[in-house]
Amino acid sequence: MSPTTSGQTMKSSRSIQEFRLDFFLEEEFNVDPAFTTLFCQACGLADVRVSVERTVHSLSDKFGEADLVVVLDAAGPQGERQKLALLIENKINAGLQPDQAGRYRKRGEWGVENKLWSHYTTVLVAPKAYIDARPDAGFMAAVSIESLKSWITTADANRRNFKLARLDEAIAKKNATGVKVVDTDMTSFRKQYYRFLQDWNKRCGTAFILPVPKDTWWDDSWFQMKVAELPSWAQIRHLARTGLVSLDMRDAPFSKMEAVAELLDDDLKIIPSGKYKQHTSVQVRVPAISSFDDFERDRQKVEVALAVAMRLLTVFQMHRAKIENAYRSI
């Protein structure tokens, strides 16, 4: 169960893959000197001999948060001693925050001034495709997750394979979803969709609820709507680019909900849904929206989608007792 505060659920903005990457790096720095050497070389510190003095995970300070800080006891080419800090930001697909690299540098300078370390390097760790897409990221060095895979030297095959699988998951997530960089067209489209929905509710007597729109990324084209008349385990979605409107019944296996099919008109398709097919959805095909740079051009398509949403709500209300009985049998 998620922790709560003041009745609200607390959720991290970071993905599980990013947390795993944090702890993967923390472990490797602390247990494998060869990994530390290779990482430093990838950061352009080829002539420096190092040992790890300490690592700090999720360091929060006046500059924000650093995913991982690694303080190294370093010896230069002439044997001179110094404290070197690696200030590491891990990314999978989330966009960089405003001036994020600049704040990492300020943290580094603050550490020098306060004698926490004598030198520092800011490092972006991310899939190679992420790094290639952001040549202007502003970090002093960048290390790809693909590189990390070749540096795992554990003799335990099971442990090595486990770590490789976790890194592969991070790379796969980036390849599947792309980088979440704020997109002005999509942000504007979602804001206009939100305003149109408020007007639709007034005209049609409905009460579809969308979250208040915020800055969003490219292809954030799913509109998930709550409706007061639906139970907490049901929602309506408009998958705008795909061209579908669905009534989603969460944590409702298809095997338990299949009987609902006999209640539906022929053009209403009921299918298992979700990554693990743990949900059931009733779907209707609608005109797809292929570009999101002009809401007015696609206003009619949105109107068609909302009309279908009304129809799915009506179907649920007509057969509510039977649908809820099916759900209660789970």
The biggest beta sheet reads: 6 strands, antiparallel
N-end to C-end Cα span: 20 Å
Poorly predicted ranges: 1-13
Spatial shape:
elongated
The chain-level mean pLDDT equals: 85
Supply the number of structural domains: 2
Question: What is the CA-atom radius of gyration, in angstroms?
Answer: 25 Å
Offer a few descriptive terms:
330 residues; alpha+beta; Yope Regulator, Chain: A; six-stranded antiparallel beta sheet; 13 strands; 38% helix
Could you give a quick summary of the protein structure above?
With 330 residues, the protein is of the alpha+beta class. It contains ten helices and 13 strands.
Describe the structure.
The chain has 2 domains: 174 residues; 145 residues, Yope Regulator, Chain: A. The protein is built from 10 helices and 13 strands. It is elongated.
Helices and strands in order, then pairings?
Layout: E1 4-5, E2 8-9, H1 16-31, H2 33-42, E3 49-61, E4 64-75, E5 81-90, H3 100-113, E6 119-126, H4 128-133, E7 141-144, H5 145-149, H6 157-177, H7 184-204, E8 208-209, E9 222-227, E10 234-239, E11 244-249, H8 254-257, E12 269-273, E13 279-285, H9 299-318, H10 320-328
Parallel strand pairs: 5-6, 6-7
Antiparallel strand pairs: 1-2, 3-4, 4-5, 8-9, 9-10, 10-11, 11-13, 12-13
Helix pairs in contact: 1-6
